[in-house]
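pasting input
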Amino acid sequence: MFWIGKDVEVFSAQKEFIDTAIVPLTVIDGSPIGMKQSASAAEFLMSLTAFVEQQFKGRVMIMPPFSYTNSMVKKDYIQAIDEELKLAGFKYIFYMTSDHSWTSAAPELSVLWLPSIPLGDMDQSVKQSVLSDQIRQVVPMLSSKWSEL
Amino acid sequence: MSNNRVTRRQFLNYTLTGVGGFMAAGMLMPMVRFAVDPVLQKKEGGDFVLTKQKVSELTKTPVKVDFTFEQVDAWYKSDVTSTAWVYKEGDKVIALSPVCKHLGCTVNWEGDPAHKNQFFCPCHGGRYEKNGENIKGTPPLGPLDEFEVKEKDGLLMIGKTRPNTLV
Ligand code: FES
């Protein structure tokens, strides 16, 4: 599911099945050297989360990405988002990012860190196989949390 | 002479109807196009997507066949790759949609080692027989959809989904 009106309606009716929220975390870097890298990391993450949605539509809700700059105290925002999503009724909340700083910034949250791969120039079928490979890394992380009680 | 003269009133009438008609056409044309477009597209044979799968290589065992088309998904527009589970039943090619009839996850052939010869949904353990029939007692309430299929130069083409005709 995506965080759009129609899907949220389904979520409200099927909370026992749609129990997982995934929040993409993307850094916005406006510096001449960081800009391209931050943009292609965001592109990668958006493609990957859309693919996760396709595979796990009936169980996960992909949230709009949380974007921040390196000067922000991003951790505080995430805690607020985490609480809000718990309130909404999600049992599992995952954060997906290509920004390595999260792994140490928020150890108590389920952060799935994946190094970004520039998809920009790839042809669709290559892109697809790259994303399938990446998803193979994500699935075990999701299912290990899902099988915990 | 005076018979042919266009009065001020007539002139305004003509021009205003002209402009009004133009505006109406401006509004109606896109509507008509929206309504007619799917029909037009069909004529071009564009409803079927060519895959790389050779029909001669298909067997009784379902294999995953990818095909790509453009789709707009929420705020994200992209070329989307979809899949079908394709196998042969005698000479007939059968392509099933991988979209679980419970809440829409993607099912896998023999995705659960404990259940051979079945499709498995990783989300809530939904299961289906090879022909797409949902197994009672698992969450899905209907059979997997079927794709229309065609063959072109030995390659498989995949069309629209339709309700399962095998169950
Ligand atoms: S979405 Fe497949 S079993 Fe629930």
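fyi Chain A is about 50% helix and 15% strand.
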